[in-house]
Amino acid sequence: MLTKVQRVSPYFIKPKMVNNDTEREDKPTQHMNGKTDQLKQTSQEIKNEVDSDIETVVPFPRTEAERSSFPNYKTNRSVTEHQFRVYDLCAQIPAGSFSTYKEISNALNSSPRAVGQALRNNPFAPLPIPCHRVLTSNYFIGGYDGDWGSGNKINSKRAKLEKEGLKFDENQVLLPQFQDSKLFTDFQL
Q1: Which stretches of sequence are listed as region Disordered (predicted)?
Q2: What's the whole-model pTM score?
Q3: Residue 53, pLDDT score
Q4: 131 part of the active site
Q5: Which candidate in 118, 129, 131, 134 is catalytic?
Q6: pLDDT tens sequence across 151-181
């Protein structure tokens, strides 16, 4: 039974398999032009961020030099400047709060769809870029990792948000008591 996914580099996802009391780690699989273990970094070089169901060790590029050629393993293309701007703002949303595609687009003078497309291809999800904290402007749960409205990925998004203290109704809409009190809009550009 798959219990945890560990992101070791932007090109390599290593499932940790647990079978009763014994653990076995699968061998690396190759992604993007055969790059695998050579891109691993030591734990001292990477700040580990832990979520209940995933340990993320994908380093988030901060400098212009790091960002200029950072590849997105989901699209096999470089991450664009617009995508990094969206990710920078999304990283500011604290646990237990949420924002909307529209609020992020307003801060960037962009469009909600462009924000959604950037988050759809987020190679840093769920941490260090918590795109699960972004909802639609009518408080619908929206999308997650390429899915929209329902499905396992949306259930995962809802579970993450509920663990952080937000609650939804049966139609995947944030409950009214959280809609104003937990909306994050104080983005720093």
Answers
A1: 13-48
A2: 0.71
A3: 53
A4: yes
A5: 131
A6: 999 999 999 999 999 999 999 999 999 999 9
